[in-house]
Amino acid sequence: MEVILAESAGFCFGVKRAVDKVYEQIETGKKIYTYGPIIHNEFVVQDLEKKGVEVIESEEALEQLTEGTIVIRSHGVPKSICEKIEKQGLECVDATCPFVKRIHKIVEKESAAGRQIVIIGNAGHPEVEGIQGWSVTPAIVIESEKEAQEFVPEAGKKLCIVSQTTFNYNKFQELVEIFQKKGYDI
Q: Catalytic residue numbers?
């Protein structure tokens, strides 16, 4: 049997960075939590749990903490979670992928400037939920051609379209073309 190794294997830059940050925090000896699983990899999450890292799954669980370090997962979280961690006086290590963080900043700025935010991605994905949480106004998530065809922006609103970083590029292009053909101010 011939084994062919892919040119690239393993974690992407943002995921590797996030995982490394958690392992670095373990070395401090402090109580470490991640807000949501640090990545979509049960083996890594289980290894971290064996080393004492707990996964927090909700704001309610976060509110119960009085001490410890919270590591923000690679997918990022809504701005309100970051604010809650700070307000509670907990230490925060932001391991959000820099590419995702860039989208957060764009969404925050453009929504504050009055643009309607359209996120092309999978509704319910942690990254998309995090991106939505940085918009000053409600963001719309579009995943399919049908949703793109049916979408009508708020009257007089300019659009800012962003994408989930792991969303299929070709499908993203197809959906953006639908918006462009409609003549929206993007």
A: 127
